Automatic annotation (TrEMBL):
Listed EC numbers: 7.3.2.6
Subunit text: The complex is composed of two ATP-binding proteins (WtpC), two transmembrane proteins (WtpB) and a solute-binding protein (WtpA).
This protein's UniProt keywords: ATP-binding, CBS domain, Molybdenum, Nucleotide-binding, Plasmid, Transport
Protein name (database record): Molybdate/tungstate import ATP-binding protein WtpC
Keyword Mitochondrion: no
Interval of the full protein contained in this chain: 1 to 228 of 328
Organism whose genome encodes this protein: Haloterrigena turkmenica (strain ATCC 51198 / DSM 5511 / JCM 9101 / NCIMB 13204 / VKM B-1734 / 4k)
Amino acid sequence: MIEFDNVKKTYADSTVAIENVSFEVAEGTTTVLVGPSGCGKTTTMKLVNRLEDPTEGTVYYDGTDTQAIDVTELRRDIGYVIQEIGLFNHMTVGENVATVPKLKGWDADRIDDRVDELLELMALPPTKYRDQYPRELSGGQRQRVGVARALAADPDVLLMDEPFGALDPITRADLQDEFLEIQAEINTTILFVTHSIDEALKMGDKIAIFDVGELVQYDTPRNILEDP
Ligand code: ADP
Ligand code: ADP
């Protein structure tokens, strides 16, 4: 589904963010990119939806070089969730979640059903939360809306960059558990960035361990625990 082939990214100021990075993410699986701050996780993620482009090597999406895919089209298939999610504050929760389905031209009934379904799934009962504004919600609830928004139009790929990073430990554990349940119900290919090895072991089918710009290990949680 997603393949990195010997990818290097050098920024304009000559910082080499990643080098020699190769890995493959199978459809419907979750790969967690883990490692300390500054080791290249976010850069790797941004190379998938072309917020950045590789300096060397190739990133493939569904077998096609991403450089040959129209950026708008690529991003239509790829949901993106970041820390401190950028919800639209002038829009209600329901309107936030409906953003991408609207862009895709879904009809109103289908959008309404989808929004309710996702809010239900994220433990935000729509009758209570649909018409509220982001400022009326807690941090954990806002992050739930962000995940619902990213999932709304059934993306083939979901990129999640420290999605639960700004939350207190208990809310974070709750959201991890909820997300694991959702993961089991959808067939979305997920790339998940965290600096917490515990979170990586909990959430990942595969774990990619980064250390200053290099991918040093890529394996299942079980194999990583047996061969640290
Ligand atoms: P991580 O997500 O693991 O914290 P990043 O991918 O954000 O790592 O950053 C990797 C390296 O690239 C760091 O040294 C960071 O400072 C640098 N970097 C990231 N973005 C830019 C940029 N836009 N311009 C220059 N250097 C950058
Ligand atoms: P994280 O560590 O959570 O990945 P950062 O705080 O390192 O995030 O980076 C936040 C934003 O700043 C990112 O969009 C990244 O690309 C950019 N950035 C990081 N390092 C640099 C840098 N040295 N020069 C310019 N932009 C940077």
